Amino acid sequence: MLWPLVATASLASAVLIGRADAERAVPIPAARTDVPAAPGLQTAVLAGGCFWGMDAVFSHVKGVRAVTSGYAGGRAGTATYDQVSTETTGHAEAVQIRYDPRQVSYATLLRVYFSVAHDPTQVDRQGPDSGPSYRSAIFPQTPQQAAVARAYIAQLTAAKAFPRPIATHVEQGRFYPAEAYHQDFFAKHPTHPYIVAWDKPKLAAFRAGFPTLSR
């Protein structure tokens, strides 16, 4: 995200021009393979640009119990916002999703991820944010998740679901929670200019595109 927590009215006006209602859910097929449901909560880690917007979408998915914003793919010692923002640490801004697989499956989360949570065709950027920390990446937590993620990317590629090649990588790496002020940022700061311009349209698109999955 480009702006500090307190932004000027002029910045807000500039970014809102032509942005409202710009987001639409991309109609993509459901995955052909999925991770079998297992007892208890499961974890998914997904990166797709600023974690504020990813949190905003996945926090409203039925079956999701908790979403934590953080950094994935780098080392623990450099997993801070100031250091990650230098674009030299190898981290990606990501969200850790705790979900009930009896209510929402891993493949369904991936469908939301590819369809509306971010643009999987952008390389090292999302919207106004650029750099490798804003890359599109999936961090599987199990071998089964890795297999499903790779198969779904191949399926969407073969179906030409997007006008440009999918840039999403399947990566390995630990997840580190971000600073407290980044957690639940959408819910706590609904009028922040960045949230209004870039994240509220994503949530609206999710609700319109996945009405039975939205809560």
Report on the architecture of this protein:
It catalyses: L-methionyl-[protein] + [thioredoxin]-disulfide + H2O = L-methionyl-(S)-S-oxide-[protein] + [thioredoxin]-dithiol; [thioredoxin]-disulfide + L-methionine + H2O = L-methionine (S)-S-oxide + [thioredoxin]-dithiol. The protein has a single domain (9-209), classed as Peptide Methionine Sulfoxide Reductase, Chain A (2-Layer Sandwich). Strand 4 (125-126) and strand 5 (129-130) form a beta hairpin. It contains 7 helices and 8 strands, in the order H-E-H-E-H-E-H-E-E-E-H-E-E-H-H. With 215 residues, it is of the alpha+beta class. The strands form 2 sheets. A 6-stranded mixed β-sheet has the order 7-6-1-3-2-8, covered by helices on one side. Strands 4-5 form a two-stranded antiparallel ribbon. Helix content is 32%, strand content 17%. The chain has helices at 9-16, 51-58, 81-84, 106-117, 143-158, 185-188, 193-209; strands at 42-48, 64-72, 92-99, 125-126, 129-130, 136-138, 169-170, 175-177. Helix 4 crosses helix 7.
Provide the descriptors you would attach to this structure in a database record.
single chain, 215 residues, alpha+beta, Peptide Methionine Sulfoxide Reductase, Chain A, 6-stranded mixed β-sheet, two-stranded antiparallel sheet, 7 helices, 8 strands, 32% helix, globular
Task: Briefly summarize what is shown.
Helices cover 32% and strands 17% of the residues.
CATH-assigned homologous superfamily:
Peptide methionine sulphoxide reductase MsrA
Low-confidence stretches: 3-22
Q: Which strand order does the major sheet show?
A: 7-6-1-3-2-8
Please give the count of helices: 7
CATH architectural arrangement? 2-Layer Sandwich
End-to-end distance: 26 Å
Into which percentage range does the β-strand content fall? 15-25%
How many strands, which pairing sense, and closed or not: the largest β-sheet?
6 strands, mixed
Report the order of strands and helices: HEHEHEHEEEHEEHH
CATH class: Alpha Beta
Secondary-structure-based class equals alpha+beta
Shape: globular
Task: Calculate the mean pLDDT score and round it.
Answer: 91
Q: Summarize the amount of helix as a percent range.
A: 25-40%
Number of domains: 1
How many beta-strand segments? 8
CATH topology, by name, is: Peptide Methionine Sulfoxide Reductase, Chain A
Domain Peptide methionine sulphoxide reductase MsrA: 43-194
Family: Belongs to the MsrA Met sulfoxide reductase family.
Pfam family, one: PMSR
GO molecular function, one term: peptide-methionine (S)-S-oxide reductase activity
